[in-house]
Amino acid sequence: MSTYRERVNRRTARTTVQRAIATRERRSPASAPRVPTVGIDIGGTKVMAGVVDADGTVLERLRTETPDKSKSPKVVEDTITELVLDLSDRHDVHAVGIGAAGWVDADRSRVLFAPHLAWRNEPLRDALAARLAVPVLVDNDANAAAWGEWRFGAGRGADHLVMITLGTGIGGAILEGGKVKRGAYGVAGEFGHMQVVPGGHRCPCGNRGCWEQYSSGNALVREARELAAADSPVAQRTLDRVDGQIADITGPLISDLAREGDAMCVELLEDVGRWLGVGIANLAAALDPACFVIGGGVSDADDLLIRPAREAFRRQLTGRGYRPEAKIVRAELGAEAGMVGAADLARLIARRFRRANRRRAARAERVHHRTGFDLLTPRGRTARP
Question: How many CB atoms lie within 10 A of CB 189?
Fold first, then answer.
């Protein structure tokens, strides 16, 4: 991959940074221009980028590991920039949407806090807008995933939808009447940090007993590794698969072994599923949605996870037997929901950039007609021969 400076020098079509973006989505996504945009999904372990068209089809995708969280936030921004510029070499990108695993402020410009990344009040939108010649939108990754599922996936037609994303931790989002509910400060939907076990496992957020410590990819892997470290007989098949290297036990491996019928891995996924159902029942009592969409990497386990979640939900639901039950469905877009949703949200702001480009081009033409100077030439204004 070429350097950032080399890529910028090649990109002569875009020379002005457009910083102004819309502060909320329009009521009708159909009014957005049908242009390709880039969606970025940033999690605790991976960064996924893709060019997405107006129908939600991913035209090209790239994936890389998330830089170590101990490094400067700039390292993550460098990774995002490289991915966008790489895709821009082959696609006419009109906007970039970022789905960030953390709390994003109401203006969708700063990541206030990210438990699994080194972001603390990080001005991510402006930092990236200063490096990319297209408008940038930043939102919580679960909000982006919920939007993607509502527009193109399992949530189509649902007026009241709650998204639960199970990855490194738990993300959440609320969508009502075609609009993401962000709360007064932009941080609604952080369900993963509801306390479910007082004095329980310590969470990276600083508290104990958070929901994501019992129903997430981290929880799944932690339990498997603890059994393996104790040399439990039930972990022998898992240890054989990783040649005794406990650090190589991962969530996808556990899911694969569970599908093969390994008793320990099946039980671990059932435990995570039951905790998932308990949390969903609490959310149903508070929010009463029609549909819960379960996404994120852990949802790849499908019925090994969803079935015990539905059973626990029915046992724990307040007023069970006397109220309608919300549906619990797996996300149709899978691991790409956040990326697709972020790209679609970015499309809603692309029109402002296109209008600004047209105004700038018209102004440059008028100046050139009067003076002979070309305002659109990179690196300053130079006269045409």
Answer: 25
